[in-house]
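Hi L.,

You mentioned the student needs an example of a multi-chain input paired with its predicted structure. This one should do, with 180 residues in total across all chains.
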Amino acid sequence: MQLARVIGTVVATVKNESLAARKLLVVQTVDRNLQASGKPMVAVDAVGAGIGELVFWCRGKEASFPFKREDTPTDCTIVGIVDSEQHVTR
Amino acid sequence: MILARVVGNVVATQKNHRYENARVMLCQQITPEGDETSYSVLALDSVDAGVGDTVLIVQEGWSASTAATGQAGAAIDSAIVGVVDRIDLL
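Structure written out for the whole complex:
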């Protein structure tokens, strides 16, 4: 899993049917100092995250496990919302 | 598996239910010589690792999920599975 900041949303009307009603968010992965690192990605939301929040995402096949339909085509899913920046202790 | 140093942890109240009672540790990958790389990753703790420890992190879903929660099938892609005492190099 990696820390990321939600920086946007994606609207896609035509998509795989198992993605219906799923929220697609643009996330920017951040390093331990919460500075952006790497390119932004699109993640499926599994916890009710929103723009500006600090979250963590899960990669790979495991990304589809939060959903009842495990054939949900995702390789990047938001699985937790960090309470605040102060809740990243380091 | 990768070598990493535990640098902190994160607190998330709203998260996937399989993360309940788990400790989400913020880790920085290191080289075998002990130098930090630019890759930071969140991993669930399964061995009572603490900040400053050098650890082994498995990055494969089935293993990570089983090590951290006792059951496969969770949206977990990284878990700490060992605390490194020493690395001997040629």
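You could point out the following to them. The mean pLDDT of chain B is 96. Helices of chain B lie at 61-69.

Best wishes,
N.
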